[in-house]
Each structure stands twice: as structure tokens, then as C-alpha cells.
Design a protein that fits this description.
Layout: H1 5-10, E1 21-26, E2 31-38, H2 63-88, E3 103-109, E4 121-124, E5 130-132, E6 141-144, E7 150-152, E8 162-164, H3 166-171, E9 181-183
């Protein structure tokens, strides 16, 4: 459901010291609104600086929706652990006791003011091990093949595409390259 302006202000990413919350991107490269969530945890009290990415989320008021998002993050983490172990052939790469950095982005790609066709998000690769992607039936996600052509990713219920990221590319010394992708 769309959020009202006051909820947008309350959840604004600028109010979070942990870089979580609601934001709007209307620029040359991207035309979207989004909300970021991470693992729900207490804020660490001291440096190192990368610990700023850990801490509590900014949540809409609905506790049922919050619980569903926390469950979704847990389910996606379990799936990601299994996928990462399978594609690296290394079941000990991410021990069960390690709590990796997680980021769940809910993104709404919007129509531009003049309805001119354009990119929802410009071509890029993710700086991650892997990214699990869920899309609605509107679709729009495309990946670039090694020959440079763009292929649409089917928008089918239950399908969870997996993009490989730059960390995985580095870890495998280029054997598994990061997946260039975009949204139209």
C-alpha cells in the first residue's frame, strides 16, 4: 500500500544512522522510490566504522507487516546461504554462526512525469556475493549476456533470479563474473 507523506518523513533514510529507511531517486540514472531494511539488531556502541551499517530498522506502524518482512529476510538468508554454498562448492564459506550483512530493498519503479520510456535503474553490477531478486508481474529486469545483448528475466510467481556480485567475482578470480543488470 502506498505510504502517506508523514510516513515517508518518519521513515526517511536520512533519519537513520544505519542507512536504512525510505528514499526517492528521481535523476538521470534512476526513477524510483525504495525502502531499505537490514538484519534487525541493536546498534553497536563503538567503531569500527563499518558497524554503522548494523542496527535497528525504521518500520511502518503495522506490526504484522513488520513480522512478514523479518520472516522474508530470514527465508531469503537461508536460501542465499544454500545458493552461495552450491555455487562456490564451499559449505564452510559462511558458517551458520556468522551473521552476514543483509539488505532487503523494496523498490517501486515509477512512471516518469511525461510517461517517456526510460530506465528504472541504470545498468550496473552489485557489490555483493549474490543478490536474490523478486519481481512482480510487471517485470522489467534484464541481464546482459557475455556478448553484450540484454535479455529479459521472466517475471513468474515463485521465480527467484540470482545475480552474482563483485565480491563473488573477486573470490573466484573472475571464474564467476558479476551479473550486469538493469530495470526498464
Amino acid at each position: 500500500n502506498p505510504m502517506d507523506i508523514e510516513t515517508h518523513r518518519t521513515l526517511a533514510i536520512e533519519t537513520s544512522p544505519h542507512y536504512r529507511g525510505y528514499s526517492v531517486m528521481h535523476n538521470e540514472r534512476d526513477w524510483r522510490e525504495q525502502i531499505h531494511f537490514g538484519r534487525e539488531e541493536l546498534a553497536p556502541g563503538t567503531p569500527p566504522r563499518h558497524n554503522q551499517l548494523r542496527g535497528p530498522n525504521l518500520w511502518p506502524a503495522d506490526p504484522t507487516w513488520r513480522a512478514r518482512m523479518i520472516d522474508l529476510m530470514a527465508d531469503l538468508e537461508r536460501a542465499a546461504r544454500d545458493i552461495l554454498a552450491a555455487i562456490t562448492s564451499n559449505s564452510t564459506l559462511l558458517p551458520e554462526t556468522e551473521q552476514p550483512y543483509l539488505l532487503l530493498k523494496l523498490i517501486h519503479y515509477q512512471q516518469t512525469p511525461h510517461a517517456a520510456p526510460r530506465s528504472g535503474v541504470a545498468p550496473h553490477v552489485d557489490f555483493s556475493w549474490i543478490t536474490l531478486l523478486l519481481q512482480d508481474t510487471a517485470g522489467g529486469l534484464e541481464i546482459r549476456t557475455p556478448d553484450g545483448s540484454w535479455l529479459p528475466v521472466p517475471a513468474e510467481p515463485g521465480l527467484i533470479p540470482v545475480n552474482t556480485g563483485e565480491i563473488l567475482e573477486c573470490f573466484t578470480r573472475g571464474r564467476i563474473p558479476a551479473t550486469p543488470h538493469r530495470v526498464l
